Amino acid sequence: MTSDVVRAGYNLLHNRSVDDSASISSSDCLGGAICQTWTSPQEESEWAARVLGESEVATCDSCETLRATAGSGLTPLIQEAYNERLKALQGLLSGSLPPTPDNLAKASSPMLPVTRGVVEALRDDPDQDLLARRLASETALSSVLDKALLLLRTLLAGSHEPNIASAEPAQSALTKNIDTLEREIRLLQTELQVRQMLATNTASLVLDRHAGGADASRTVEQGDPEPGRLNDADARRK
Question: Does the predicted model carry a pTM greater than 0.90?
Fold first, then answer.
């Protein structure tokens, strides 16, 4: 159920026949978000089945579902994405990975790109390790959220395929998948919002105040270049 709908939706969104299994080259993708994330319908189908599970649904009246496997949800994928991005980011910070666009992309997400400037700033920060882990966590979370939104778009497109739309058992299974994915997406969005709220927490305030105090301590008041000019002006008037 999951694989067939995703395959159909993937191909419909790329103006191909619903049973096409060929990969889409980068030159043919033309910057499309889905074909940049998954180069073939098989890749997206495997990712979807891992998240949502898989089931076989027979469309005849006297038939029953033959097989069903549960999905793992998005949480394990977030941990995997975190490990990958932290490894790439640590390589960029140590210099073992040059800051090429490809290497920067390994530490980034479509929603939160990591630029060369960010890497250079982190290299000079005394809390480099802590901030690198926090950045890897944020890019991992946003990358999985981005994929989940693309998968939702694919499922909705696949639901309009005539054979799927006309089969009630298929529609029931598809509705369950969409509801499950939307719930997972809402949880991720809530987590991102909480992280943004906590970005201005007490620890950040203490660091900002410390930085402000350090700047103030380095300030040298400029003395009057002509300390006796007022006395001289009075003397001239007299």
Answer: no
